[in-house]
Amino acid sequence: MRKLETVAALRTHLQPLSRAGKRIGFVPTMGALHEGHRSLMRAARKECEIVVASIFVNPTQFGPGEDFEKYPRPLEKDLAACREEGVDVVFVPEVGEIYPPGAVTRVSVARLTEGLCGRHRPGHFDGVTTVVAKLFNIVQPDKAYFGQKDAQQAAVIRQMVRDLIWPIQIVVCPTVREGDGLAMSSRNAYLSPEQRRQALCLSKALHWAQGQIETGRGDVQKITAAMREQIEAAGPCEIDYIEVVDAETLEPKTSAVGRCLVALAVRIGPARLIDNVLVDAGGAGR
Q1: Cα(13)–Cα(252) distance, rounded to whole angstroms?
Q2: Residue 286 confidence (pLDDT) above 60
Q3: Domain residue ranges of the chain, discontinuous segments joined by +
Q4: pLDDT at 281
Q5: 279 has a pLDDT exceeding 70
Q6: Catalytic annotation on 13?
Q7: In the predicted structure, residue 14 carries a pLDDT above the cut 90
Q8: 3-state secondary structure the chain
């Protein structure tokens, strides 16, 4: 496994492999790797000859007062995880390598970024799309892998790739959960043991909503109100949103029909946790 820190070094390494017809799979991360990230690397390993992962805590997707400074950065542990999963190249750039002095260009995707997390984190998705666009330009992957837990992010990136006519397949892999149902997240490390137990209310509320929708109880207002009651009853928290939206357009639904995304963002202690479930109102959720 190679660890490369500059754009020039990465391009020099990858371009001959691409010209030789090797399929390149790319897993962009901010580090603090867990089983969810590892699942993306394994998916890339199965489908591509070359697997590239990036570890870069992107400053432009953090807003004022968010956790950029304290975001976990266990680099040696992360490199070991990449090695164990058969990653060929890990790109670990400094901030100045991605945002050279004087850089003013931003990539923005409209509409899909306006609701859910976008409403509560102004500018966040511009930071995400800008850094992912830069990384795609550097790596030139054939496939890029993202997790369903970040459903809005995946939808936004898929739209960006479609709109900019890039020959990159976006692969969205299922959310990986702890044995008790909590969605894996680097921010789970912020939780105390008591807060960690409380956080189980999120996946339980989502599972309950999935059951309601699958059995034909599609009143979104009643479903989200009941979810809110369940989550607030579990302990102190701040709910950013609980919504049922169209799985493709992310437009809010008043009735849970068709393919739905039930999504939430809740602050428990120092951690802002997001989770979601996809549900087909005419069939099985997953």
Answers
A1: 45
A2: no
A3: 2-173, 187-280
A4: 83
A5: yes
A6: no
A7: yes
A8: CEEECCHHHHHHHHHHHHHCCCCEEEEEECCCCCHHHHHHHHHHHHHCCEEEEEECCCHHHCCCCCCCCCCCCCHHHHHHHHHHCCCCEEECCCHHHHCCCCCCCCCCCCCCCCCCHHHHCCCHHHHHHHHHHHHHHHHCCCEEEEEHHHHHHHHHHHHHHHHCCCCCEEEEECCCECCCCCECCHHHHHCCHHHHHHCHHHHHHHHHHHHHHHCCCCEHHHHHHHHHHHHHHHCCCEEEEEEEEECCCCCECCECCCEEEEEEEEEECCEEEEEEEEEECCCCCC
Task: Name the token pair of 151.
Answer: 């459903």
The reported pTM is 0.95
Q: Which two tokens stand for residue 177?
A: 């959960």
pLDDT higher than 80, residue 99: yes
| Mean pLDDT, residues 122-139 taken together | 98
Q: Which of 37, 120, 124, 207 is catalytic?
A: 37
Q: How far is CA 36 from CA 81, 101, 185, in A?
A: 12, 34, 8
The closest alpha carbon to 85, from 51, 47, 136, 49, belongs to 51
Rg (CA), the chain: 19
Decide whether 2-173 matches 187-280 in CATH topology. Answer: no
- In this predicted structure, the answer to whether residue 283 has a pLDDT above a threshold of 80 is no
Q: Class for domain 187-280, per CATH? A: alpha beta
User: pLDDT tens digit string along 176-194?
Assistant: 999 999 999 999 999 999 9
What fold is seen in the domain 2-173? Rossmann fold (3.40.50)
Q: How far is CA 193 from CA 199, 226, 245, in A?
A: 10, 26, 32
